[in-house]
Design brief:
211 residues; alpha+beta; 12 strands
């Protein structure tokens, strides 16, 4: 992978290769992607996951970057972890996109005026039983944020060429419910991007750049 990725080339690939609509629930549950697929861990049917939406924000600088959040340490779940803006889809959310917009506004104050959706990735099943629907969107570099300190401690950007380099996609492992489980990890300048977030980044790479 080149040490520079052109924004126009990225947008062309996104238009060609991203899903135009989020996957239907039945399709997503028939063969879900997730950390379990790395080690071929069998899934127990029927799957009844909670549905979540995340925004995968591509900041359209001269070289695109990915915008991440660092979750607040006071949270009961996944405290301090690196994530994309997102969360559980509410009954009042009319669409997956609307849920991603709402979560981005609530968590980091990223308004819709700065966001333009590009498409969708395959759903990602987490070990905590969330079926995550990733919305890939371009974000204006003029964006402004207002972090919700109860949910987000910090935000940061990573150059896209770093994350689209498969040599940086490390496989790490830790014990989960008595079993050693592997997962993707992408350390960057003291930040530890791993788990579902890294898995979604890996899926973005595979859809746009692996072939």
């Amino acid at each position: 992978m080149s040490e520079f990725l052109d924004s126009e080339h990225f947008l062309a690939l996104a238009a060609e290769k991203l899903r135009s609509h989020p996957p239907e629930l039945g399709e997503a549950l028939s063969n879900p992607r997730g950390d379990h697929s790395i080690d071929n861990v069998p899934l127990v049917s029927p799957l009844q996951p909670r549905i979540a939406a995340v925004l995968v924000p591509i900041v359209m600088r001269h070289e695109p970057t990915l915008l991440f959040t660092e979750r607040a340490t006071s949270l009961r779940e996944h405290s301090g972890q690196i994530a994309f803006p997102g969360g559980r889809v509410d009954a009042t959310d009319p669409t997956i996109l609307a849920a991603a917009y709402r979560e981005a506004e609530e968590e980091i104050g990223l308004g819709q005026a700065f966001i333009s959706p590009l498409g969708y990735l395959d759903a990602y099943l987490s070990t905590t039983n969330y079926l995550v629907m990733p919305v890939v969107a371009q974000v204006s570099p003029a964006y402004t944020l207002a972090l919700n300190p109860h949910e987000v401690a910090d935000t940061f950007e990573v150059p896209l060429h770093v994350l689209m380099n498969p040599q940086r996609h490390e496989l790490h492992a830790r014990e989960w419910k008595g079993r050693l489980r592997r997962y993707y990890a992408m350390p960057y300048e003291g930040r530890y991007i791993w788990g579902v977030t890294a898995g979604i980044v890996r899926n973005l790479y595979e859809r746009l750049y692996s072939s």
